[in-house]
Amino acid sequence: MGRVISQVTAIASMNIRSIPQRLWMSLSTVVAIALVVAVLLAFLAMGNGFRQAQSSAGAEDIAIMLRDGAQTEINSAVTREQADLIEEAPGIARENGRPLVSAELYVIVDGTSRANGLRANLPLRGLALGGVALRHDVRIAEGRLFQTGTNEIVVGRSVTREFAGFDLGKTMRLGQSVWTVVGVFEDGGTVRESELWGDVGVVQSVFKRANFFQTIRARLQSPRSLPALKAYVDADPRLKFAVQSETEYFSEQAKQSSNLIQKLGWPLAIIMAIGALAGALNTMYSSVASRGTEIATLRAIGFGRIPTFAGTLAEALTLAVIGGGVGIIAATLLFQGYSASTLSANFTQVVFTFKVTPALCVSALVLALIVGLIGGIFPAFRAARQPIVGMLGDQ
Amino acid sequence: MNQALLVAKNLSRRKLRTSLMLVAIFIAFFLYGALECFNRAFHSSENSGAAERLVTVNRINFTMPLPVNYAGRVRQVEGVTSVSYQSWFGGYYQDQRQPLFMFAVDPVSYLEVYSGIQLPAEQRRAWLTNRSAVAVGKTTAAKYGWKVGDRVPIASNIYLRKDGAKAWEFDIAAIFSDPDDTAREGLIMMSHDYFDETVTFGRDQVNMLVFSTVSPKRNDEIAKAVDALFANSEAETSTDTAAAFNRAFVAQLGNIALIITLVVATAFAAILMIVGNTMVMAVRERTREIGVLKTLGFRGSTILSQILAESLLLALLGAVLGLGAATLAVAAAGKFIQGFGSNMNMTAGVFLGGVGWALLLGLVTGAVPAWSGMRLQIATALGRR
Known about the structure:
The complex is a heterodimer.
Chain A: H1 2-17, H2 23-55, E1 62-67, E2 78-79, H3 80-87, E3 94-95, E4 98-99, E5 101-113, E6 119-127, H4 129-134, E7 139-143, E8 152-156, H5 157-162, E9 163-164, E10 171-174, E11 177-186, E12 196-199, H6 200-206, E13 212-213, E14 215-219, H7 226-235, E15 241-245, H8 246-257, H9 260-263, H10 265-290, H11 292-300, H12 305-335, E16 339-343, E17 349-353, H13 358-385, H14 388-393
Parallel strand pairs in A: 6-12, 8-11
Antiparallel strand pairs in A: 1-14, 1-15, 2-13, 3-4, 5-6, 5-9, 5-14, 7-11, 8-12, 10-11, 16-17
Helix pairs in contact in A: 1-12, 2-8, 2-10, 2-12, 2-13, 10-13, 12-13
Chain B: H1 3-12, H2 15-42, E1 53-58, E2 66-67, H3 70-75, E3 80-88, E4 91-92, E5 101-105, H4 107-113, H5 121-129, E6 133-137, H6 138-144, E7 151-156, E8 168-176, E9 187-191, H7 192-198, E10 205-206, E11 208-213, H8 219-229, E12 237-241, H9 242-253, H10 256-285, H11 287-295, H12 300-333, H13 348-375, H14 378-383
Parallel strand pairs in B: 5-9, 6-8
Antiparallel strand pairs in B: 1-11, 1-12, 2-10, 3-5, 3-11, 4-7, 6-9, 7-8
Helix pairs in contact in B: 1-12, 2-10, 2-12, 2-13, 10-13, 12-13
């Protein structure tokens, strides 16, 4: 057994060290595998970034209420009377006796994309200062919060990055009124950062939606209070609401919005991997062919079939690992943190950044190794079964 | 032995190697064909007569409503020929997560403005006379297996029925096609009158006016006149060509064209490496043979053209197989895709474009070995082992 291992190591290291002799063929396999890995990682990082922007926005202890069947904020509708009823509901946290409930209006306005200069849908959320306070993680990074009763807005960091004209101090026309950006807020790159926020009363009057809201959010005493709130809503025929935690809501949103392009990563990578596999097989068969005399010589002086087999396989796997590594590095350098935006289920732009993670790199490397394994195994069989006499006599 | 036979023999001497290269080329052209067809279908709403139609939406954003009486006022604008309007219905059939591309429209003017829509005369009559009827585009009808005369329940995730029922029961009066604008074949149209009659809110409001004009040349001027009409009113408007509107909307989904270009370029870069290097190696193996051929009196240019013919044949064969498979895949995939891109099919442009790329690939991968084959000295060739 020990002898087999030492023979395997000897042949493997000899094969690997001789790769430069077959430089161009080996390089073509490395490049092909690197490209497949880079494409896969780019798609996975895009899908991952998009999902995280939405799913990390939700809090377990915030309940969100939408009109039953609406599914998204933009399709929902809530009246003042319903909002008042929710303030009396059980399970809702209170501060100084006041329930922590935020009735919000959500309208879509136009922004101009920095990337292509075209108009794009941005959400303008009307909410009270109490509603801002409900969102724990949001912090004002520049300027200040809007004042109640004024045409002031604060905008998410992602909005200022992807859309023109929303920088601090800028003014713009939204609806029948001119608004001033008085602050920029951050929320760890989540979907919230793709929103504009203004005072709910002002947004209602400018957009002629007096006493009309889209959603109600409420801070729960604890995540366990959700069933009590649900029971209260179900018992009242005036409240035809779907009640869910923000976490649930956002993960459902992420599922609904992930479009065809985001699902394309794996199928595309697998199809491309078949092409790279053809290249790898080609390279390895030619490697075995060019080492024919060498393999026969080694077999003649006592090396076994298993080391010959393993040596060839080791060469293929080495090429795959190099290719995988190059692909991972290239994809990380090119795409990590790349900012993009797409239309969400709410019919507004969600800005997100590509996120390459170690877990995604591992799955990309596995794909590379599979290509190396299959691309090495058949040529390795051929190497191991090569007749000694024939090969030596051939010359 | 003629030239063609020699090329064929060279390609088939190592069948495994040739097949592997064919597989790599096949994959690259399959991806090119499928993705390019998707890309064209995805952007098809920006073409096909859309440049001649104008679209008016609320200046705030196109999801904001306009009063339905704007249609009558736009009709008075000089140069406007017919005006129609539509509202997004937010409809779905059975599965709430699969939105239908459904609008409430004014049927008579809709068929005037979208003059490319084709439907049999009796179906047209049935749709125009039955308020609770819908006209369904043929791709959507095929997708759900709907036929003329069927009655289907469709619910909305925006609007509620006055009578409290969950869903609307629609009679399918017509199934239409629109060969010049196949994206339209994925839509469903209900009557706006019926919509106004049955919903709890949103009556007499529309999302969008669509109209045709006497001449595309006057569109800029007419668009300005329309917007001027509603300036400083409760609902100010923004008017543009349907093509520009669609382009902005499709761009909101993401830069699909860029993604597809990058993926296809990546696939081509990979086969360029694989096939290019393999061709160099294959010709180097034949060094002695080339020396013999030259000794027999074959000219350098003959050797050059033989090697080029070999790489071109390989590239074209792989490309045609790949494009053929893409044709089948695209036809099958169209049924599973919702909305944008569902009208994809292989076009002559995509196919011929692929053949063009294959010729280029063949020339590039053959160039180096062909050149060195041509320049090879007999003495060197016969001496090399």
